[in-house]
Every structure is written in structure tokens, then in C-alpha cells.
Amino acid sequence: MGTRTEMTTDARIEGYAEALLDVARAEGLLDVVESELFTVARTIESSDELRSTLTDQAIPAVKRQAIVEDLLGSSRGASNLTMSLVSFIVSAGHARDLPAIVDRFVRRAAAERQHSVAEVRSAVPLDGEQQRRLAEALSAATGKQVEVKVIVDPGVLGGLEARVGDRVIDGTVRNRIRQLRSSL
């Protein structure tokens, strides 16, 4: 059984995810916000500097919010709702939890549609048709309706890595090289 802090953190993450879902649904922007939040969470996870800055309580909340607005507004063209939601979490001092909150949000949104989420890592962006075909293949492999969320990760070198729940399908060049090394 987890500690009181772990349970409190989990309850907080669940509460924020539910609130984000309610707001996005009420505004009629669930699909847009879901996609944008997923991208934001992966960006924060992949940048130690950004994560450190957004979680540094010594930096005034107004400054951290400005960083969020710069990140989402100019470079990503995110919706005002997504900017407001991320700014709210950051200003509340929970930027460290943002990736977990977003992951819970995405899973809840998919579950409402009776789907599972496939987190796919690819060296290059996938177009709509590629994502559709991949979703069909993963649905057939897992026996579940699958929604594909793509993370562009040049570290995979080529191929794809898909994670659906606890199941991982690793068809990356990086994995093939690792397998060759271990067999030699």
C-alpha cells in the first residue's frame, strides 16, 4: 500500500485530470485540448531545463505563466483554453505533475470513447493516413479500439515503438541494433 503522500499525489493528479476533462468537454474542445496537452506534456518531459524552470518555486508564478504562454502561443499555436489550463496547473505549483495529469486525462478521454491509447514513438512525424493504418494494426494486435498518440523521438533511429497499456511492441532500429549486439 502506498504512503499518504503517494495517495495524496495520485488523488491530486486524478482530480486535475478530471477537471481538465470537464472543462475541455464543456467548451467543446476535447479533441483539440487532448492533442495539445499531450504534446505539451511530452515537451516538458523531454526538456530538463524547461521542467526545472516551470517547477522552480523561486521563479514567480507570473514569470512561469509567461514561459507557458511563450511556449504554447508562439511556437505551437495552442488554443487559448490549453494555454489557460497549463498556466493554471503551473501557477498552482503542480508543473511537476503535469505529464502525469495529462496522461491520466488522455486515458480518461479515450476510455469515454471506449478506446485505449497507444503511445507511439517514431523518428519522424506520421501523417493522418499512417496513423490510421497504425491504429488499425494495433487494434487488431491488441483486440482493443486504439487511438494513436505519436511522440517524435529521433533516438528511435527508425521504425516504431508502441505502448498500449502494459504491452510494448518495439520495432525500432535502436532495438534491432540492441538485439544484434546481444547476439554477437
Structure description:
The protein is α+β, with helices and mostly antiparallel strands. The chain has 2 domains: 1-113, Peroxidase, domain 1, CATH 1.10.520; 116-184, no CATH class. It has helices at 4-26, 30-46, 48-55, 61-76, 80-91, 98-112, 128-142, 173-183; strands at 116-122, 146-152, 159-164, 167-172. A 4-stranded mixed β-sheet has the order 2-1-3-4, with helices on both faces. A hairpin with a 2-residue loop joins strand 3 and strand 4.
Q: CATH class of the largest domain, anyone? A: Mainly Alpha
Compute the gyration radius: what is it?
18 Å
Unreliable residue runs: none
Main sheet attributes: strand count, strand direction, barrel closure? 4 strands, mixed
What's the CATH topology name of the largest domain?
Peroxidase, domain 1
Quaternary state, please? single chain
Layout of helices and strands, plus pairs?
Layout: H1 4-26, H2 30-46, H3 48-55, H4 61-76, H5 80-91, H6 98-112, E1 116-122, H7 128-142, E2 146-152, E3 159-164, E4 167-172, H8 173-183
Which key terms come to mind for this protein?
single chain; 184 residues; alpha+beta; Peroxidase, domain 1; 2 domains; 4-stranded mixed beta sheet
Short description:
The chain is α+β, with helices and mostly antiparallel strands and about 180 residues long. It has eight helices and four strands. It has two domains: about 1-115, Peroxidase, domain 1, CATH 1.10.520; about 115-184, no CATH class.
